[in-house]
Design a protein that fits this description.
- With about 140 residues, this protein is mainly alpha-helical.
- The protein folds into two domains: about 45 residues, no CATH class; about 70 residues, no CATH class.
- The chain is about 60% helix and about 10% strand.
- A hairpin with a 6-residue loop joins strand 1 and strand 2.
- Helix 3 crosses helix 6.
- The longest helix has 26 residues.
- The structure holds zinc ion.
- Zinc ion (ZN) binds next to helix 2.
Length: about 140
Amino acid sequence: MAKATVKLICATCGQSFEISKICYNRTDANNWEAYMSDRDDCTCSECYKKAKQAEREAEKQKFVEDVYSKLPLPQIEGVSEKQVKYAEDLRIKFVHTYEQNEGERLIKSIYTGRFLSDEKRAEIAQLIKTETSARKIIDALKDIV
Ligand SMILES: [Zn+2]
């Protein structure tokens, strides 16, 4: 075993950072170091995390827009912007769960311990199509999504 370490400059923020890898032998380690040194597209862990986070948020935003373009969900009314936002997030989460395939949904149900009968699911689907009260939406969804 040989440890390869290389100092790189982050392509995003310009900070220098180090990365290491355990290789099978010294030759492999040297090859990896040489290969990494030639790259100019590496980002530090901080920038990588930020980029991933931005990616996830963009995906979520796209999903939300997609939902609203396909489902004419009513405008939610609540006592505060925060409450409305919470109700909206729960509503989107519910749609997201039921947009997943059967297998993913099952895994999530086992993981969270939250199982919904078909009747209950239909009832909630009906509710989110018509309900405008943030409080009622939160009450219906907070323990199941
Ligand atoms: Zn960086």
